[in-house]
Amino acid sequence: MCVGEYVRLTWNVTYVQVNRDGYVDRLAIGVNNQLPIAPVYITQGDTLFLTVHNMLNVPTAIHAHGLVQTNMPYMDGSSMITQCGIPPNSSFTYEIRSNNQSGTFFLHSHHMGQLADGLRTPFIIREKYPEYDEDVLVALEDWYATDSRDKLVELLAPDTNAPLTPTFPFGLINGYNGNDTQTIQFTRGKKYRLRVMSMSTTEYWKFSIPGHKLSVVEADGVACEPQVVDGLDLAPAQRYSVVVTAHESDEYNFVYNCTLYADFVPRIAGLNPRVYTGLIEYKQGAPIKHVTVDDLVWADDVSMRARDKEPVFGVDRQIELAMRGFLTTDKRRLRRLGTLPYAEPHVPTIFTAMSMGALAMDSRVYGPQTQAYIIGYNQSVELVIKNVQGQPHSQHQHGGTFQIIERGPVDHSELEPPPDPRFSLDDVPKIPIRSYSGVPMRRDTIDVPPFSYVKVRLRMESGIWLHHCHLSPAHDVAGLSVTFVVAPDVMQKTLEIPRVLYEQCAMQGIKTEGNAAGNWGFDMTGLPPVPVEMPKAPASVQGVPAKASVQGAPAKALPKVPK
Q1: Please, are residues 281 and 183 in contact by the beta-carbon 8 Å criterion?
Q2: Are 246 and 187 in contact (CB under 8 A)?
Q3: What is the mean pLDDT of the chain?
Q4: How many C-beta atoms lie closer than 10 Å to residue 150's C-beta?
Q5: Which of 8, 39, 42, 405 could be 46's S-S partner, Cβ–Cβ 3.0 to 4.6 Å?
Q6: DSSP state of 303
Q7: How far apart are CA 175 and CA 195, in angstroms?
Q8: pLDDT single digits (tens) 227-273
Q9: φ, ψ for residue 68 (rounded to 5)?
Q10: Which tens digit of pLDDT belongs to each residue from 417-428?
Q11: What is the 3-state secondary structure (H, E, C) of 351-404?
Q12: Structural contact between residues 147 and 243, judged by C-beta atoms closer than 8 angstroms
């Protein structure tokens, strides 16, 4: 284990009035009255003590995305899962140990939709002995004109009209309008580590430097054997590091491309996609060489190999999850990953696990909508994550990384008919089955393209760990989450939750013992009624030819074949 320094940082989380897209002034959330929030850098082995003063009028919580909180699940920062949230006018200090981890991560709010309101910033853990000359950050975000709270009201309000009118965000690069991209300076022959990361909430990004090859050396904080590609295709919350070797000649400058796009809303020139370009400058005033690359090779995680060559896990248990829509009888458009849409319990799940004794090993005490799966100590789990819809999903795992085992097609009999009747699923391109070779790659956020599945394996520390779609707030808050309760019997014997977390729950009138409802046994009195799904009409009644169609696709469009 690396031993490093203690790094102390204070955040005053405040509301700020901003105009980040050049068009719309809106209320956002920043730090120390500033937005963007300055990136945080530490070195492998360091421990970050992040003191958060909440100056908002609602709770907040900060999650270190991608960090494994060994023996400290209460530092994971997941509101109503591992803490009650920091109340207004209160403070909490997160202890974030890097241990042996290094790479590209980020810090963001994990309370409702505050991520989409700006409370996010890169968190970089540098290696003690870097294998490159310079480190360059390329942080990519989408930015909507609508406050997340207003968006949630629109998304979750009962409504018979579907789908919602699409909205088109602007792109931000390193915190600023993508139209004002920064120049990246290259010196002949030097090696540059570009940390390309998506902190987006909904839309995807592509990145390339035509005329240069990108050697992928990291995905989501996991070092990999170099994979040479032309470009990166990033789902929300994914990160890559690529090493780019500068040319030996400085005769020309080049251009780098950052494209913000979504395949699940209509393609409209200037809105979707939005293309941003910046300068790779070898010499000031040199002419720009525009390079056209046909048939770009994109980074492909299933064919990557983890550099540490961790052997593939066996399978002690298999869990199948599927992203599905859930239209309730009162016309709310929810989503589910397990059997029901996720909803927060009245008692944070970690406190239920700690207070329910032997019953903590029974998933029923966590409530029907917490979607809890009890995992045994040191148990290896294979997740089969199925996307039966025509929209991609970016699945994030708290408390560990996935070993990527296999990608392939979902059987047509399981696919969910989208509302757009223009295309039959018979027109969907064939998706090949592809498996890892030799040593599997690991990452904490995995893209699951339309109509496909991914098999992953993981082994988590004891604790409470959320698994959820990172499209926020449209998917995670609407129900695409499940909870892994790992070895609660071990937690009861080994964990000591800081007293301040109990006190902050009490300040908000939230119980810290009992089941999900704050009662004993299986009495869930006080929880909201479990939503009831609207019976699905036959495809012919819905007006869907054959079985289904590509959701939100323009004429002649088909879903992207998984890489």
Answers
A1: yes
A2: yes
A3: 91
A4: 12
A5: 42
A6: G
A7: 14
A8: 999 999 999 999 999 999 999 999 999 999 999 999 888 899 999 99
A9: -90, 115
A10: 765 566 666 767
A11: HHHHHCHHHHHCHHHHCCCCCEEEECCCCCEEEEEEECCCCCEEEEECCCCEEE
A12: no
